[in-house]
Design brief:
The complex is a heterodimer.
Chain A (H helix, E strand, L loop, with lengths): L20 E10 L6 E11 L4 E5 L6 H9 L6 E5 L6 E3 L11 H12 L3 H14 L15 H14 L4 E5 L7 H18 L2 E6 L2 H7 L2 E5 L6 E6 L11 H23 L1
Parallel strand pairs in A: 3-7, 3-8, 5-6, 6-7
Antiparallel strand pairs in A: 1-2, 1-4, 8-9
Chain B lengths: L3 H4 L7 H18 L8 H28 L11 H14 L2 H32 L1 H14 L7 H9 L3 H25 L3 H9 L4 H12 L1 H25 L9 H10 L3 H33 L8
The chains are: A alpha/beta, B mainly alpha.
Amino acid sequence: MASTVTQRPAGDTLGDREPAVSLDHVSKSFGRAGHANPVLDDISLDVAPGEFVCLLGASGCGKSTLLNLVAGLDRPSSGSITVPGGRAALMFQEHALFPWLTAGKNIELALRLRGLPRTERRAEAERLLELVRLGGAHRKRVHELSGGMRQRVALARALAQDSSVLLMDEPFAALDAITRDVLHEELTRIWAETHVSVLFVTHNVREAVRLAQRVVLLSSRPGRIAREWRIDLPQPRRIESAGVADLSVEITDQLRGEIRRHVQH
Amino acid sequence: MSSTDAITGTGTADSSAKDEAAELGAGLDALETQSVERTPFGRLLLGKALPPLVAVAIVLLLWQGAYAAHIKRPDLLPSPLDVWDSLYNQWLQGTILSTIWTSLSRGMLGFFVSVLIGTPIGLLVARVKPIRAAIGPILSGLQSIPSVAWVPAAIIWFGLSNATIYAVVLLGAGPSIANGLIAGVAQVQPLYLRAGRTLGATGLRGVWFVLLPAAMPGYVAGLKQGWAFAWRSLMAAELIASSPALGLGLGQALENASEVQDMPTVLATIILILLVGVGIDLLLFAPIERRVLRSRGLLVAQR
């Protein structure tokens, strides 16, 4: 790894600890040289161990591309990405559970691919299902579960990788508001219990403020880090609370400003 | 559960708020999940088995009517009862089961060899681009060749032997099985492959744990069609490549009856060929297909 000195983002609390995810001047463009279409431009971002960071941006900011890069599904065009804990777990907007397996077997497959011995898989899958409050759903088929339950099983499967980093790509965007609210509470609880670092991508400002310790606003086309906020409101927060609302207004204004810039150019 | 001792580490949320969240979540789950009840077996049988039986009965009646009206000479158009007598006589002579078994064992063996060869070919064509470009079109073209067309070539190569029969079955069923798998792989959602890769299922593990199970519905459809093609090809081969050296299968039995103008036996044999082909499909492939589809929630709407 090149020994470049990363400029620490303002308000960072890393101290001496090694970051769980480190992006160093990462750029990504698609297409051939000459006609390259830049999607991400010079992104430098560290996520501290156990930190919850939300990446916020309008369409075209390359949020999902960024997660793919961190997950190792794609390579950056330039810059470097370090995930010292090994492969990061990734959760998608669609549950992406395998329909040919039961809920429990989906988790057991993740455990098996992680290398957990057969004898321990069943109990560990049960423990993870209990963690997402779906104890007893082991034998349920994916199509027998509600949308919220599927996302919880997907969360349990992601946690089954036992990675120190959990990447989430708008995981609750397809859910109704009430279910999403409940899952926000569950995620906050599980994050606190597991001490996992979360990099959560969303276009929902309130969701970002509800969940994150730090919100990073990306500009669009190409995606650059525009601004970031530390959220010091105590958890568990409520999405309707005044604190969340106030900060959401501020961030939304900034986000709209970023979007308006595209008219002038 | 051991997860409870981790909860104490948070220290922020009080337990009553947690219980509330749990209850809220459980309530939502209960509201959103609908239970799927299975149709009782008796009604299922009535709904599925009765209509075809009625159709068969109607065909038999029309047939008997045509016989009674003397549309053709009785030796050219025997009555259903004559055909039944022929079947019954074969049963009394004890030849019928061995004839069926000769063909069935050939068909099954040929089919399994086709599966063993067609599956890796299908997988290679589906997953390796240059191979797909090169032999994908040939493979789907092969399906349009009637299997009878292979018989003369196979006889020249292998003579009147079992090898000829198996070669024809393989050429008939192999492409269907491979094409079924190719179609199955093409229908796999890319999301599953991405999810598999993030879980660490790459390379052969990705094929085994994600790609093959995801492609299963298409593959099973291909197997079903492959059996139909295997059975058809076998009959074509047995009809033409008949020799006393080869055991007596249904195809040879048909050819023998035809040579002595024994129309009841010809019809009886055709019915046997139909029954065996359909029987294997119903007893072996239909349950597998239902299982695969039901486990994925793809059969819920169908009653």
